[in-house]
């Protein structure tokens, strides 16, 4: 049975950027626990860093991120001081500066910082950690407000990759989501970033937006192709107005249904593949020479809170309000509310709000889910052997997979399960078969497609 005839297009499922997912984190993992975990890290641990900048100049109505509108610079300056202090606090719990291979600035709008402040923040990271000489430093950027001075600062700070939010170039869609951004504006930023020495330029697009059509999706892709980005990320809009109140400004009648969302996603994917991009997992596309395409080919592709990644580090340290980290022992999330985050950091505390201790079973299921999400196939017996677990313990998961197999959504080949190409967009449904928490009460997730 092909994907368009399944009953799963509108099912709400986790994106599986972690396992277990954030709704299952609890307050039993606190600042004291996180401090102990940091102290247990071996000095030779390879790490990546995530820094969250939760401010924007205006709110895009589709946004699902933890961010707030700052029309003045004062709150941003105050927050930056706390962010720098948190870096010092975390560094004080480590036995030695960790070997850092990846740094990611997310938001919000990280490029909202003043140029000198951004350069100073990266300099602090170089002081507190052992940034590898070839470390990737990536920044999420709003092209509508990026100044030439900031472009030069990004280059001077050693940024290697910039992810530009585009979403859609359709004027009707842009008006419906409160984000007006021209092709010319975006193209000028791409040129400026490359002139500053930032060779890795990615574009983020979204399907399933209000008033969006398959034709406008393809037109947006065509305009983006003229700018020759290294990678594309194409996400499905997650409409969760109960949790993101600004999304109530979007008229639900203007949203496409599951079949139309699938058609939009596949049309965009087909055009990118025709243009020479390699399709990576669920929603990424990369030039064949790009590190992500090579990681896919070698089986070393990973998945974390930023989506698909080449980051194979053993520890991810999250800084800033709402930031999530992952250590070998488990997950940690900071206070979400900026005021509470600042209060705790101001007292010299780790601002940990909640987290999750990983069990042996969690680690097994996390690997099964990650490999399926990355490779669209997984050898269940091989993964179980690595974790010294009897595959028979996965009987409930295998029963769910057997049902999907009868529906033509997956194929069994010995102990391997494979996603047929026509069911690629429903890989999250297949991954959910391994999720031991999926039937427990949790927040409303995004649609499967």
Tally of separate helices: 14
- Structural class call reads alpha/beta
| Percentage beta strand | 15-25%
State the shape.
globular
Helix content: 25-40%
Mean pLDDT over the full residue set? 94
Q: What about the largest sheet?
A: 9 strands, mixed
Short description:
The protein has 14 helices and 21 strands. With 449 residues, the protein is α/β, with parallel strands linked by helices.
Describe the protein's topology:
Elements: E1 12-13, H1 31-40, E2 46-53, E3 55-56, E4 68-69, H2 74-93, E5 99-107, H3 115-128, E6 130-141, H4 148-156, E7 161-167, H5 171-177, H6 183-195, E8 200-207, H7 214-225, E9 231-236, H8 258-274, E10 278-280, E11 284-286, H9 291-298, E12 302-304, E13 307-309, E14 315-319, E15 324-327, E16 330-334, H10 338-346, E17 352-357, H11 360-375, E18 377-379, H12 380-386, H13 395-406, E19 411-413, E20 416-418, H14 427-431, E21 446-447
Parallel strand pairs: 2-5, 2-14, 3-4, 5-6, 6-7, 7-8, 8-9
Antiparallel strand pairs: 1-21, 9-11, 10-11, 12-13, 15-16, 16-17, 18-20, 19-20
Structure description:
The protein is α/β, with parallel strands linked by helices and 449 residues long. The protein contains 14 helices and 21 strands. It has helices spanning 31-40, 74-93, 115-128, 148-156, 171-177, 183-195, 214-225, 258-274, 291-298, 338-346, 360-375, 380-386, 395-406, 427-431; strands at 12-13, 46-53, 55-56, 68-69, 99-107, 130-141, 161-167, 200-207, 231-236, 278-280, 284-286, 302-304, 307-309, 315-319, 324-327, 330-334, 352-357, 377-379, 411-413, 416-418, 446-447. The longest helix is centred in the first third of the chain and has 20 residues, at 74-93. The chain is globular and about 60 Å long. The two termini are 16 Å apart.
């Amino acid at each position: 049975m092909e994907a368009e005839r399944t009953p799963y297009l509108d099912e709400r499922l986790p994106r599986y950027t972690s396992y277990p997912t954030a709704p299952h984190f609890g307050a039993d993992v606190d600042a004291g626990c996180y401090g102990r975990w940091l102290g247990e890290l071996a000095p030779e641990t390879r790490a990546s860093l995530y820094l969250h900048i939760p401010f924007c100049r205006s709110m895009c109505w589709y946004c699902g991120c933890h961010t707030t509108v700052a029309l003045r610079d004062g709150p941003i300056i105050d927050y930056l001081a706390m962010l720098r202090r948190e870096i010092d606090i975390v560094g004080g719990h480590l036995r030695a500066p960790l070997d850092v291979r990846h740094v990611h600035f997310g938001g919000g709008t990280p490029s909202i910082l003043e140029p000198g402040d951004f350069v100073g923040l990266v300099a602090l990271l170089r002081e507190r950690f052992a940034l590898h000489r070839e470390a990737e430093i990536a920044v999420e950027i709003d092209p509508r407000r990026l100044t030439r001075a900031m472009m030069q600062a990004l280059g001077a700070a050693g940024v290697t990759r910039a992810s530009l939010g585009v979403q859609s170039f359709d004027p009707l869609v842009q008006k419906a989501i409160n984000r007006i951004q021209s092709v010319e504006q975006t193209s000028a930023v791409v040129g400026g970033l490359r002139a500053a020495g930032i060779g890795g330029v990615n574009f983020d697009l979204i399907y399933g937006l209000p008033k969006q059509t398959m034709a406008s999706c393809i037109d947006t892709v065509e305009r983006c192709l003229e700018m020759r980005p290294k990678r594309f990320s194409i996400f499905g809009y997650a409409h969760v107005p109960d949790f993101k109140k600004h999304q109530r400004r979007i008229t639900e009648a203007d949203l496409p249904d599951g079949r139309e969302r699938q058609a939009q996603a596949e049309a965009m994917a087909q055009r990118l593949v025709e243009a020479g991009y390699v399709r990576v997992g669920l929603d990424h596309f990369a030039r064949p020479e790009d590190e992500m395409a090579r990681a896919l080919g070698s089986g070393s592709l990973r998945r974390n809170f930023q989506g698909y990644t080449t980051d194979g580090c053993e520890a991810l340290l999250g800084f800033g309000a709402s930031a999530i980290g992952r250590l070998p022992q488990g997950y940690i999330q900071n206070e979400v509310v900026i005021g509470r985050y600042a209060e705790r950091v101001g007292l010299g505390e780790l601002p940990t709000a909640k987290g999750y201790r990983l069990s042996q079973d969690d680690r097994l299921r996390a690997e099964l889910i990650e490999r399926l999400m990355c490779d669209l196939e997984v050898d269940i017996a091989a993964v179980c052997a690595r974790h010294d677990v009897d595959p028979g313990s996965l009987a409930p998961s295998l029963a769910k997979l057997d049902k999907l197999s009868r529906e033509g959504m997956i194929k069994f080949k010995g102990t391997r399960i494979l996603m047929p190409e026509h069911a690629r967009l429903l890989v999250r449904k297949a991954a959910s078969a391994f999720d031991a928490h999926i039937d427990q009460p949790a927040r409303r997730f995004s649609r499967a497609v």
